[in-house]
Amino acid sequence: MPSGKRVSTHFEWTPDMSVGEETIDAQHQRLLAQLNKVIDAMLFGAESEEIVRAVDFFKTYADEHLAYEEAYMAQRGYSHLAEHQKYHDDFREKYRAFHEQLTSRHAPDGLLMEMEVYLGDWWMHHILLEDKKYYEALGPSEGRVPTPRPRATKLA
Ligand SMILES: [Fe+2]
Fold first, then answer.
1. pLDDT bracket for residue 105 (50, 70, 90)
2. How far does CA 123 lie from the centroid of its chain?
3. Ligand 1 centroid distance, CA of 130 (Å)
4. What is the DSSP string of the chain?
5. I want to staple 146 with a disulfide (CB 3.0 to 4.6 A). Which of 71, 73, 85, 131 is the partner?
C-alpha cells in the first residue's frame, strides 16, 4: 500500500504515489500543495475572500488536471475510462455544489470543515486507489503526452 500520508492537516505526495506519467505526478503534487493552502485558509481563520480565492484556484487547477488525466487514459486506451470519468464527474458535481454554497450569502455552518474533509479524503483516496488502477493496467507512459480535450462538464 502506498504511503502517501496525511501530515497533521496537510497532505504530502510521496514517490510511491506515482502513476507512471510525469505530468500527472507533477499535477498531483501541486494539487496536494494547493489543497494544503485551501485547508490553511479554511482552518486558520483567513478572510473569506482569501478562502474563495484559494478555492477558485484549486478549482481551475483541478479541472485542468482531470481533463489532462482523462485525455491520457483515452490516448492509452484504458478500458475503465468511463468508470474513471464518472468519479471525476462526481467530484466536479460535488465541488460545484460546495462552491455555490461557499459563495452564497448564507453559507451553512460547518461548510468549511465539511469541504476540507471531503477534499482531503477524495483526493487521497482517488490518487492512491483509482489513479493507481490505470497505472497498474497501462504501465509507465513511455513519454507520450496527450492533448487534453475540452469537456462539457466543468467545475463551478
Ligand atoms: Fe483520476
1. confident
2. 5
3. 6
4. ----EEETTEEE--GGG--S-HHHHHHHHHHHHHHHHHHHHHHTT--HHHHHHHHHHHHHHHHHHHHHHHHHHHHTT-TTHHHHHHHHHHHHHHHHHHHHHHHSTTPPTTHHHHHHHHHHHHHHHIIIIIIHHHHHHH---TT----PPP-S----
5. 71
Domains and CATH numbers, the chain: 21-138 (1.20.120.50)
Q: How many CB atoms lie within 10 A of CB 82?
A: 9
Q: How far does residue 105's CA lie from ligand 1's centre (Å)?
A: 32
15 Cα: distance to centroid of ligand 1 (angstroms): 17
List the one residue out of 62, 72, 50, 61 whose CA is nearest residue 123. Answer: 62
12 bridge partner residues: 5
The per-residue pLDDT for range 129-147, each reduced to its tens digit, is: 999 999 999 999 877 666 6
